[in-house]
Amino acid sequence: MTSILPPLARHISAIKRRLIVIGLTLLASFVVTFAYAPELVDWLKRPFHDDLIFYGPTEALFASIKVSLLAGVILSLPIVFYQSWKFIEPALLPREQRWAIPLFCLAAAFFALGLVFCNLVILPLVIHFFVSFGMDRALTPQLAVGTYIDFNVKFLLVFGCAFELPLVLTLLARVGVVSGDMLAHYRKHAVMVALIISAIVTPDATLFTMLLMAVPLIILYEMGIWGAKVFGIRTPRSEAAKGLRQTTPVETAGHRVR
């Protein structure tokens, strides 16, 4: 027990330290982007030009907070990716650690792709659906800006993070935390989680808008399964553990031994 507690304590301390850095970065980015909140709100409501209105001062404040939070998350991505990488770096082999910069670029590209896909494909489909099927009370010229901004920010943030799913699952499989078979086994659970997230985030309870979010999430999970099977560790952890004579962890996450 005494040989396990010190590495575990260092591991927890490393997590805490990196989460604090990420939290402070997000806070600082939020403060910076909040100064440009009016311009961000105008950019998000551009499909309706000047037709959207605020119904109260608090609604304007909350809309500004939401868009500033989204912009702050995007602005903080380099630090978030860097802290995440430094956390898993000790678990990687030296030749795998050389992939740091390409992984940074790939993660940023996936997040940007999620934002672009949501802004150019998903959100226009949602707006078109509401207007075409007579549910434009939620998206009429009298729509409160806060309501429109709310589901814009939710959709953009969820899709930006969701597009990281294949990369995250592949990396977890690479360090031996999960496997392609494990992810495939929990496919039904992943579908259920995708539907629950869609039900929470979508602005209404219609099946169409739920599927607009759930289907891409499920496809991204399937891509993660494929990545885990192709790039993950092929030797099961139980078999690899048989050849270990000493399993004392080193540094924050320990060193992986093949």
Walk me through this protein's architecture.
The chain is mainly alpha-helical and 258 residues long. The chain folds into 2 domains: 1-160, no CATH class; 164-236, no CATH class. It has helices at residues 5-34, 37-44, 57-88, 94-97, 100-132, 145-162, 165-174, 180-185, 187-201, 207-231, 237-242. The chain is globular. 26% of the residues are buried. Mean pLDDT is 77; it is low at 134-142 and 236-250.
Please describe the structure with a list of short key phrases separated by commas or semicolons.
258 residues; mainly alpha; 2 domains; 11 helices; 0% strand
Oligomer: single chain
**Percentage beta strand:** under 5%
Overall tally of structural domains: 2
Structural class given helices, strands, pairing?
mainly alpha
Radius of gyration: 22 Å
Q: Give the rounded overall mean pLDDT.
A: 77
The percent range for helix content is over 70%
Could you list the spans in which at least 5 consecutive residues all have pLDDT below 50? 134-142, 236-250
Distance between the termini: 25 Å
Main sheet record: none
Query: What is the 3D shape?
Result: globular
* Strand segment tally: 0
Helix/strand order, N-terminal first: HHHHHHHHHHH
In DSSP terms (H or I, runs of 4 or more residues), the helix count works out at: 11
